[in-house]
Amino acid sequence: MAGHSKWANIKHRKGAQDKKRAKIFTRILKEIHTAVKEGENPDPDTNPALRLAVNNAKGANIPKDTIERAIKKASGADSESYIDVNYEGYLSDGVAVFVEASTDNLQRTVANVRSIFSKNGGSLGTNGSLEFIFDRKGVFTLSKENLGDRDREVLELEIIGGGAEEIEKGEERWFVTTSFEDFGSMQQTLENLGLEVQSAQLHRIPKTNVTLEVEEARKILNVIEKFEDDDDVQDVYHNLEMTDELEAALHEEE
Asked: 90 has which bridge partners?
């Protein structure tokens, strides 16, 4: 699928963060920690959330011993507990921002998030205020290399049969999008098909986007990066449209 698909926008919005390998490690290791704590079970075979987090860790090339240490640490009675919390608000020009965080200190986190909004011409809203803007979707990343020599048309039909709403076929990867409700069934479908998943995550995809001139859009992306740089923040979503002009300007900076 060509053009600015929903997932293509997600990829570009998260591009700056995904270059920061240490940040990726921290986010995924927190996911492992939370999965162990909430599931009260350190075994990926019987803890679905932990199995998902471990698979994502492997997809991000986190070393096996690092994963095992994270599981062992989270299993300890005196290990810290993280709380998942969301923050919603607007930046200038009506750009909506949804921040997902995992923290052991709510006061610190909300203070930091509120400060970024207020210092950059934005405002922190109430929880649920952006529900009409974002859809929660499951996104599975598959390496084309791991698809082997299978018949692509047959494989695509099998994936659609498992609940795929959209399959974006890039040069190196396939991105499979499902509804929130079909996330689990798609996991099972891909596992039954013997397909190795590089990552499987729930994302918030905007229903509508805000289009800005390049310079204004850059200012918004700079603020998004400030959110992403916060240690407590796991993911940041927004509805700024990635136009061809903006993409070209960003590539020039690389």
From this structure: 96, 123
Q: 61 CB contacts (<8 Å, ≥6 apart)? A: none
Tell me the per-residue pLDDT of 138-167, one tens digit each, with 9 for 90 and over: 999 998 888 888 898 999 999 999 999 999
**b/e code 196-232 from CB counts within 10 Å (16+ = b):** ebbbbbebbbbeebbebeeeebebbbebbebbbebeb
The predicted model scores a pTM of 0.81
Cβ atoms within 10 Å of 175's Cβ, excluding its own: 21
Look at residue 42 and give its three-state secondary structure.
Answer: coil
Neighbours of 24 (CB within 10 A): 17
Start-to-end Cα distance in the chain: 25
In the chain, the domains with their CATH numbers are 20-75 (1.10.10.200), 83-132+208-253 (3.30.70.980), 134-206 (3.30.70.980)
